[in-house]
């Protein structure tokens, strides 16, 4: 599966699950500020999760934030692991 396919699948899944319409441009704008350091820093990662939550207008429980942070850190930022993580999150 190519990156474009997974990106569209993720966006479509988010829109379906939240019942809210998030544009590809909104996601790109947010993603443009994400760096490897963002994923390494727990504070930055938490900030990113909150930004996504706000953009999607979907509250995220602190326990869920903790689970996401733990999963991202455990993945070691391997892109295959990140794709697997995204697929897992889409199924929740």
Question: How would you describe the overall organization of this protein?
Answer:
- With 92 residues, the chain is mostly helical.
- It has one domain.
- 78% of the residues lie in helices and 0% in strands.
- The chain has six helices and no strands.
- Helix 1 runs parallel beside helix 6 and helix 4 crosses helix 5 (62-75).
- The longest helix has 16 residues, at 3-18.
- It is globular, with a radius of gyration of 13 Å.
- It starts with a helix and ends with a helix.
- The mean pLDDT is 76.
Quick description:
The chain is mainly α and 92 residues long. The chain has six helices and no strands.
Features:
single chain, mainly alpha, globular
Give the helices and strands, then pairings.
Blueprint lengths: L2 H16 L5 H9 L3 H5 L1 H15 L5 H14 L3 H13 L1
């Amino acid at each position: 599966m190519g990156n474009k396919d997974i990106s569209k699948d993720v966006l479509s899944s988010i829109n379906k699950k939240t019942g809210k319409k998030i544009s590809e441009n909104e996601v790109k704008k947010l993603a443009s500020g994400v760096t490897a350091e963002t994923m390494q820093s727990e504070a930055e990662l938490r900030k990113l999760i909150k930004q996504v939550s706000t953009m999607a207008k979907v509250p995220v429980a602190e326990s869920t934030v903790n689970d996401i942070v733990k999963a991202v850190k455990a993945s070691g930022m391997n892109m295959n692991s990140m794709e697997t993580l995204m697929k897992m999150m889409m199924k929740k």
